[in-house]
Design a protein that fits this description.
There is one protein chain. The chain is mainly β and 412 residues long. 13% of the residues lie in helices and 38% in strands. The protein is built from five helices and 23 strands. The strands form six sheets. A five-stranded antiparallel beta sheet has the order 14-17-22-19-20, with no helix packed on it. It has a four-stranded antiparallel beta sheet with strand order 2-1-3-4, with no helix packed on it. α2 crosses α5 and α4 crosses α5. The longest helix is centred in the N-terminal third of the chain and has 15 residues. It is extended, with a radius of gyration of 30 Å. 26% of the residues are buried.
Length: 412
């Protein structure tokens, strides 16, 4: 196989390589194309091109839940969060060189079966709103407010009136920007608009974009970069969906390179976990019901286990299990231990003995058994260990449906 790499800028090749996996350091900012041509021994070729942007460092964004559970949401309870942003060219939120209004923070509830496209569209709308912050800041730093108001007519027209007049005419953006610089009169009455020759055309364009966006009725409000949020389920919802927390920032671009977006997404899921959906199962048979659609975990031996990754046990005080144990099904019964880190890790708690009852699981109401657990702070791998040391070989202990993690709420 023969390899030919071409690194080009504005159509001019700046470097070529013939090895399969070369490296290249950009000495000048700009938009480059890396083209690879591969030729096989019989002369057949394949080609692919990748666009590379050099000269604008991507923003560094962190998004954390500072108080509250980092795995589960609890309806009606509050969590606190904080977003930090730093950018080599733009500065940082902490130093106030990046405006908090330029950071998009959204929280959405994704119920079971919900179309994720709608959530994504909301994210894009939130990002678009933050992109107009630069124009807003330029206006607030100028003398524009002496003659213009957002909602009401002053000496000149309101920004809302201007937005309504030109909202469907994007081709007018540059003309309006030049009018800010050069001044003019006649469109909104006899009062002349003063010239602003010190404003650059790029800045005037940003100001016009902000003004025209005021007419956008689909504007999505974003949350503050630091704050709190109280979860609330839609009416009739069963609470088995997920909350999607997202923070994003698009920098202003640099060296003629367009802005780059950095984002972080946190998901908070229901605290009622289906045991059969664990990340790791050992010694457990999974039985699927069609009506209602449900997966049931049936431990088949002593020390069978279901393990869940990345479970935040902060403020979790109890785990309530939904189980069934039937003599007719030859269930042996047993206990459920909750352990942290590994199968033999610290035991945080255990249930009482689950004793098989007369009847079959088909006509037997599910039982609730609880285990109080030792307080633990932080994210753990949690093992649910099913115990019965006197079990016969391959004898099922009982049926385990769900594990509900209960908490004490947000401690201030």
């Amino acid at each position: 196989m023969k390899y030919e790499w071409k690194i080009a800028s504005k159509g001019a090749v700046v470097k070529t390589f013939t090895e399969a996996n070369p490296s290249f350091t950009f000495s000048k900012p700009g938009i480059y194309n890396a083209t690879l041509i591969v030729t096989d021994p019989k002369g057949e070729k394949a080609e692919a091109t990748l666009e590379l942007l050099a000269g604008n460092e991507p923003p560094v964004l962190t998004f954390d839940i500072t108080k509250g559970n980092k795995t589960f949401f609890f309806p009606g309870q509050t969590f606190n969060y904080n977003v930090t942003v730093s950018d080599k060219e733009d500065g940082s939120l902490a130093k106030k060189t990046i405006s908090p209004e330029a950071v998009a923070v959204t929280v959405d509830y994704l119920k079971e079966g919900f179309d994720k496209v709608e959530i994504a569209q909301g994210h894009r709308s939130a990002d678009e709103n933050t992109s107009f912050v630069k124009g807003q800041q330029l206006i607030e730093g100028s003398d524009c407010k002496a003659c213009h108001n957002v909602e009401k007519k002053s000496i000149g027209p309101s920004y809302k009136s201007v937005a309504e007049k030109y909202k469907d005419k994007p081709e007018e953006t540059e003309r309006l920007a030049k009018k800010i610089i050069n001044g003019g009169s006649g469109v909104w009455g006899e009062v002349a608009m003063a010239a602003h020759p010190t404003i650059k055309i790029e800045e005037a364009m940003e100001m016009v974009k902000y003004i025209l966006n005021i007419a956008n009725e689909k504007k999505v409000e974003t949350l503050p970069s630091t704050g709190s949020y109280t979860t609330a389920l839609p009416e009739g919802d069963m609470g088995i969906g997920v909350y999607i927390l997202r923070a994003a920032y698009t920098d202003k671009g640099s060296n003629s390179i367009p802005g780059i977006t950095s984002e972080k997404i946190i998901t908070l899921r229901s605290s009622n976990l289906v045991v059969a959906s664990a990340d790791e199962l050992n010694g457990i048979q999974v039985f699927k019901l069609k009506n209602p659609p449900l997966e049931i975990a049936i431990p088949q031996k002593n020390n069978a286990y279901a393990a869940f990754e990345n479970i935040d046990l902060t403020n979790i005080t109890e785990v309530e299990f939904t189980v069934n144990a039937s003599k007719e099904r030859n269930n042996a019964g047993g206990k459920i231990e909750i352990r942290s880190g590994s199968l033999t890790g610290p035991k945080l708690g255990e249930t009482e003995q689950i004793v098989p009852l007369e009847g079959t699981t088909n006509n037997m109401a599910p039982r609730k058994v609880s285990a109080k657990i030792t307080p633990v702070i932080g994210v753990q791998k949690v093992y649910l260990v099913f115990k019965n040391e006197s079990i016969k070989d391959d004898q099922p202990l009982f049926s385990a449906v769900s594990a509900l993690f209960k908490n004490e709420g947000l401690k201030q």
